[in-house]
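Structure (tokenized):
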């Protein structure tokens, strides 16, 4: 592709994955957000759980000063606390709903317009229809609250069999779920991650064509599908990780299909987001090295589309 990607999309990065020492909502959040905000390569940053309100206020000031967009991801707040939005136990389900409403408030504080989250674990074939109904109930409750705050919801799809083992899930199932929610909340949308594609045993064309009418966010990164390989599962190693599934060729094909389905298009008034989700896997892989390598992979893949 000869034209610069900024004509087609806004590049973001998942802060709490690039700097995993902040993933629990503590640690050097302000300092590391500032590092990303200082890099003009990124037009947006995706922050997560930030427990300290003073840190949230500081992050908002950094975002405003750097003229960078911001999104909020509640996935880790749900996962680390083992909260389940589709639990068949209503008390347990409501704990997850309460957390997502709190995350909505955090999103407002940092200036985000969308809040990303994930479904709870898949209970298996027998109870899956009940879990679907519970998730619909939870999303309706949170979306009603979020709408009053000016926040739209984004559901990220995850694997169902290997790591997160999430209800949502395979792309055709995710599309059906989004269609259901959009009857009442038209701004609800889906996020698809190249990192999850191999774990779902899907292809770029098959998955993205199924989701094309519902996509509001894209992530790109890597995963490991071989249980005998270091980094197995949804650990988001860098591109080119030994035994990993994704590198320049896979990202190139993924981008090609994003153009094919119209997610990437010069005709769009608001440029869609594509976010990097990569994480250092060892002490000799600094966040800065992994980010730099990811940017090189992106530039290489973009030039091949």
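Design, position by position:
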């Amino acid at each position: 592709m000869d034209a610069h990607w900024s004509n087609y999309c806004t590049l973001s990065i998942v802060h709490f994955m690039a700097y995993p020492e902040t993933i629990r909502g503590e640690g050097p959040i302000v300092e590391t957000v500032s590092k990303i905000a200082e890099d003009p390569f990124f037009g947006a940053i995706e922050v997560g759980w930030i427990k300290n309100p003073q840190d949230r206020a500081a992050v908002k000031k950094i975002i405003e000063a750097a003229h960078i967009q911001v999104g909020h991801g509640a996935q880790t707040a749900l996962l680390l606390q083992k909260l389940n939005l589709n639990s068949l136990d209503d008390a347990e389900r409501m704990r997850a709903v309460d957390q997502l409403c709190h995350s909505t408030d955090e999103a407002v504080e940092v200036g985000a317009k969308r809040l990303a989250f994930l479904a709870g674990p898949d209970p298996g074939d027998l109870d899956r229809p009940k879990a679907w109904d519970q998730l619909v109930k939870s999303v309706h409750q949170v979306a009603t609250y979020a709408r009053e705050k000016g926040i739209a919801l984004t559901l990220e799809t995850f694997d169902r069999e290997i790591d997160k083992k999430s209800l949502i899930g395979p792309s055709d199932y995710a599309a059906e779920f989004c269609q259901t929610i959009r009857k009442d909340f038209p701004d609800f949308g889906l996020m698809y991650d190249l990192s999850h594609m191999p774990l779902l045993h899907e292809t770029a064309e098959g998955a993205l064509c199924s989701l094309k009418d519902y996509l509001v966010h894209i992530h790109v990164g890597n995963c490991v599908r071989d249980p005998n390989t270091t980094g197995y599962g949804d650990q988001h190693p860098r591109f080119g990780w030994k035994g990993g599934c994704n590198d320049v060729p896979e990202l190139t094909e993924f981008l090609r299909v994003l153009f094919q389905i119209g997610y990437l298009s010069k005709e769009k008034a608001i440029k869609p987001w594509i976010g990097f989700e990569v994480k250092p896997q060892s002490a000799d892989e600094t966040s800065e090295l992994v980010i730099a390598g990811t940017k090189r992979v992106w530039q290489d893949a973009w030039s091949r589309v």
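Reviewer-requested clarification: The two ends are 5 Å apart (CA to CA). Residues 133 and 139 are 10 Å apart (CA to CA).
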